[in-house]
Amino acid sequence: MAGKNIFENLKKMDTSYLLDPSLQEELEAENVTVETDKPHETDIDLLVHFKKHPFHIDKESAEFLELVDSIRENGIIQPVLVRPLSNGKYEIISGHCRTEAARIVGLKTIPIVVVSVDDYTATKLMTHSNISGRDEILPSEKAKAYRMCLDEEKKLGKNRTDTAETVGAGKDSKRQVQRFVRLSYLSDDFLALIDTGKLTVQIGTELAFLDPESQVSLYEYISNFQHIPNLVQAKIIRETAEQQPLSYEKVVSLLIEPPKEKPKTKVTFKTKDLENYFDQGTSVDEMESIIKQLLIKFKNGELKIDDQG
Questions:
Q1: pLDDT tier at 1 (50, 70, 90 boundaries)?
Q2: What is the pTM of this model?
């Protein structure tokens, strides 16, 4: 089977449910090894999570509990897609929730389809199956998943987000994917604030340009003062941190100390404020002429201003 297209083999095995149509269309040109003609049972303890798998498994969610009930009643209908590891175990590409639900039910074996793919293809498959297959995905999950695609792309000598954009197509726009990639440079503490809605994606994108030291200082400030910077403050923090990493004290000075007011460079009067000093019907030009005449007299000492106003 070596060298045959994965989807040619999967079609023969009637496992069209393994991968969604969009993923199949995206990866049709990938030539990989399918180790068996049909799913086979393997010891569930031989399955391990995908390295740095960014998607959480909420075991308390209604969706997961329904999956547990379904597997308890019907077993696993959809095999888990895996790739072999050098230690004799299998890395899960698609099917993390099914595997965890099967463990809860107490299954000792689980049906798998084994494919031999490199890190790039495996990451692409894993990310796409989750992005396209889940209704609710946390911003932090997307950020880390798209970043994984970018990192694997870099290993191939590219420095773009083409793969992430392809994987996210239909879910996120090109600009949104790039924004999520930027968010991946935030610490887990800040990503948690975004996941819970305490920090907006827009502000988080600005803060994602901060170096790790500055992020630690800023998060300490947020924890102590229970204050999230607004967008204007986030831009100021980013610009300041571009010069050198921010200390906690510097963050406090930027966000607590009131900004110095710029001195006024011109004097203006509102017409309504001047109307009380002129007869009704006096035009603006007449007001301006009279004021100038009075100022000339004041300058020449002909007009004295009482200290009391």
A1: very low
A2: 0.72
